[in-house]
Every structure is written in C-alpha cells, then in structure tokens.
Amino acid sequence: MPVVHANAGRLPAPETLENIPAIMSSYYTEFPDPAVAAQRVAFGTSGHRGASLLNTFNEEHIHAITQAVCDYRVMKGITGPLFLGRDTHALSEAAFRTALEVLAANDVSTFIAEDSAYTSTPAVSHAILRWNKSHAQGQADGIVITPSHNPPRDGGFKYNPPHGGPAETKVTGWIEKSANGYLENNNRNVRIKHLRDALHSTYVREYDFVSAYVEDLPNVINIKAITESGLKLGVDPLGGASLAFWERIAEIPRINLTIVNNLVDPTFRFVPCDKDGKIRMDCSSPYAMRRLFEIRDDFDLAFACDPDADRHGIVTRQELMNPNHYLTVAAWYLLRTRAAWPADCGIGKTLVTSAMLDRVGQELSRPVVEVPVGFKWFVPYLHSGRCGFTCEESAGASFLCFDGAPWSTDKDGPLLCLLAAEIMAKERMSPSLIYKKLGERLGAPLYQRLDSPADDRTRSLLNAISPENVRMETLGGSPVTDILTQAPGNNASIGGIKVASEDGWFAVRPSGTEAICKVYTESFSGKKHLAAIQHDALDFLENLLKS
C-alpha cells in the first residue's frame, strides 16, 4: 500500500507554503535551455506543464508556445476569435499576460473574461462550441492557462481547436515541435506587443463567460427539478476558477446552494495536504477534500471542483464518492432519462475506467466505446452523438444537452456536480445509495491504482509491446480473455497494455506528466482477488523491465 504522509488531510504549515514572489520572479528571470530535454516544451495528455523554479515553465516557454499556436491557426485557416482562460495558480496570471502579448502581436482577436476574471476549462470549451454553432465562417478556438489540480508552484498551457476539446496528439505534436524551434532560436521570430498596448488594441475584447455558461444550463441540466426538490447543497471551489460561476448559480431563484469557501489565494493555504504531504487541489482525494467531508451533514449533497474546474468531487452524507462509482451512476441515470438522445448512443470511457460502466451499458443495451487515456479521444463521439456520456477515472466527464447537441467537449466539473443534484432530486436517493443498489445487481468491484517509477526505457518498452509478446494465460487465477495494446473503440495505441479476465483486469501505462508508471487494477471478486491481480500486474512489469 502507498505510504501516507503524516500531514495528509491537515492544513499546510505556514512555513511550507510556496514562495509566490520567487515563483513569479523565476518566471521572468530564468531561461530554459533547449539542450536540456526536461526544459523543452512537452505536451502530455493535458498540455505543457512545468514549474518556473525548474526552468520548465517560464516566459520564454509561453512566448514560444503561443507563437506556435498562432502559426497553427494561420496554417489551418482559423480566423475566428480565440477564447483565452486561466485558473488561479500564480503562474497562470503571468502566462495569461504573456500569451496576450503574443496573440495581439499576431492580430488574433482574443476574448477574455470581463475584468480579467478567472475562467474555467469547461467555460472555454462551451464558449467555443457556442460561437462555432452560430458562425459557419470564422471558427473560434481557445487556450486555457492551467496545470489543473497540480501543486501551487506549477503552471500549465492547454490548446483547444475549433472542436472545443483538447487538441489531438497530431496537433500538439506540431505545436510542440514548432515551439521548441523558436526556443532553439532564442525566440527571435516571436512577435510580441507590450501588454498595455495589447489590452488597448482592437484585438482584445471582453466576453461574459459566466452568463454564457450559467444561462445555458437549463439546456443540459434539469434545474427545475433541483430548485423544486429543496435539496440543501454545498460547494467548495477549492480556491479555483469556478467560484464566479458558483456565485452566479447560487443566484438562481429557489436554489439552495451555499459556497463554503470563497477564498482565492495562490498559496492554496486552505486546501489540506494530499497523501504525499503536498498541496494538491484534487477534488477526488479524501485528503484534499477533508474539510468539505467533515461538514457533509450540513448538506444533503456537497461537491467541489479543481482550480480549472474540469474535475468534480461528489460528497454525500455517506462518503466522498469514488470517481468510478459516481461515473457509473451518472451513466446509468443519463441513458435512462435523456429521451431525445439518439437511441443508439452510448457511453465513452477510457481503458482504465471501471468495468462497471460496461455492465451498465449491457443492462441498458447501449454500446460502450473504450478509448486510450485522454479526453481528446471523446471529442468526435460527442459531436456525432455516438456517445451521450463520456468519462475517465480521474473524475472528468461531460455529456450532451437534452436535444443531443454537445454542451462541452472538454471535462466539465460544475456540470457533473449539478447532475448529482439532479439525480438526487429525481431519484430521491443519494448517488451513493444508487451505486450500492447497482452493485447489488451488477457486481461491486474493487479498484486501485498503484504507481511505480518509470524512466525513458520503461516508456519505450511499454510503447513497443504487442499482445503476441505477452504470455499470460491467467489473471488472478482466472483465464485471460483479452490482451490489448490498442483501444477497442478506435484502435489507437494505449501506450501500454491492458490484460483482462471475466472478473478483473489490470492496465499499465506511463504517466504523461510524471516519471511514474501507472498500474490500474480492478476486481469483481473481492480483496484477495484484487491482491492477486496486483501481484500479476507488478510481476508482469518487473519481467518486462528485465527483458
């Protein structure tokens, strides 16, 4: 079992908080060396991430990446506005300003939040889709400056093309290569307009992200059911960009919603330490969510979002729900209640999300589309209506509007939080109890992720592996039914391997953002069987590394 830090679940001591002035100073005064691999631009599953103190997220990076995005827009003929958002990390403010300087210098019409407010990932995705639905010409795209739930010292940069979702690997690969080319040339060809001039130019305009998102909610959520239920709801934005959205949602007549924490501070001093003792705004972590969990009895239902609001955490009076459990309930509910969705639309899930979703699909006679890790894989399925609900085990999901049109094609935390309230209002039962009943009928799996160190050799071996090279006849004592290195939903490489039996599975893949190998395991046959699967998974990884 992973070791839990002594400070896990406790508020951080003042002396352990990040030195925000040092982080900000390093952003402007330190320079990456493109000859050092770790300091180059690198897009993982969620964009480029890094830290200014490590020379992996500095102004030079953002100059280069933003110029590369501008070049990509020209190459693809993208002439509409670019929606620019940012979360509440310290480096997000600096990178937001840097990006504006380059966008304006490249004559890109850029929409930013009113009064330069924080803007969430789902709000940017929703804005892109809303614009493009009414503009056949001049399609829009977007950038979100965020490292998601990462610690306060980190920064991140994500690009969303006109389809509204995370950019595909081919796109991010092009941007990454182009950006590194600029870095190697000391950014000599990057166009920059001073921030003051950029803000006063005709290329920067304000956009009301909050109103556009909140006023559209009745098209995707049964707000009437929530307000009529009288449910007492609580929400903790965890110091993130969703605060302004929750403040507006709380103004909806007769909605009984309390914001339990309205603080925004780049040290995130009000977030309890995660399992490793670091501040990590992970709304699915029982340690980071301890304060909301402790007041759960004050509400019928409570929830939280991470800093860029693309993840959700659901707290019932019984528990902080395991993300896989809540996603199962959401899929079960949506496919039974959205009558206007295509009759053959189903569930989209990543390979490492619970097999309970497969069983829900079987019970409801709906297809389940399994793709590699990364929400970008779901974008075409949401646009086509082939999947009404798409999700990944890390508490990220989105779903279609009542009429079957896409709402957002990126992960949407507030949407899934409000869905939990709708489910409880309509089913008159907490999502926790609904999952318990589903488990009694479909099986109650045990799920755990283990982490193992990974280097470049490990990544290469996992990327090169093929099913023919894996000689496993049993898994946890049960016959192996599938050995996959490609996702069955779209035949894309999973960058690792998944081995399954009728009552369990494991998957091994390297992280896109950390030097670790993620080992996902699930069993429908109890603790001993889960332990046996984990033994087989780690044994497989050990033998692979010996080869």
Low-pLDDT residue spans: none
Mean pLDDT: 96
Relative helix content: 25-40%
Strand order of the largest sheet: 1-2-6-5-3-4-7
- Beta content comes to 15-25%
Can you count the beta strands? 21
Strand pairing plus helix content: what structural class?
A: alpha/beta
Distance between the first and last residues' Cα: 26 Å
Descriptive report:
The protein has 547 residues and is α/β, with parallel strands linked by helices. The chain has 3 domains: 19-210, Alpha-D-Glucose-1,6-Bisphosphate, Chain A, domain 3, CATH 3.40.120; 216-442, Alpha-D-Glucose-1,6-Bisphosphate, subunit A, domain 3 (Alpha-D-Glucose-1,6-Bisphosphate, Chain A, domain 3, 3-Layer(aba) Sandwich), CATH 3.40.120; 446-546, 2-Layer Sandwich (TATA-Binding Protein), CATH 3.30.310. It is 35% helix and 20% strand. The chain has helices at 20-29, 59-76, 90-105, 121-134, 169-184, 195-199, 209-214, 223-229, 243-249, 290-294, 323-337, 356-364, 379-384, 413-427, 431-442, 456-464, 527-546, and strands at residues 43-44, 47-51, 82-86, 110-113, 141-145, 154-160, 204-207, 233-236, 257-259, 301-305, 312-315, 346-350, 368-371, 387-392, 396-399, 446-453, 474-475, 478-486, 493-501, 504-510, 516-523. The strands form 4 sheets. A 7-stranded mixed sheet has the order 1-2-6-5-3-4-7, sandwiched between helices. The chain has a 6-stranded antiparallel sheet with strand order 16-21-20-19-18-17, covered by helices on one side. Helix 2 crosses helix 5 and helix 11 (323-337) runs parallel beside helix 12 (356-364). 54% of the residues are buried.
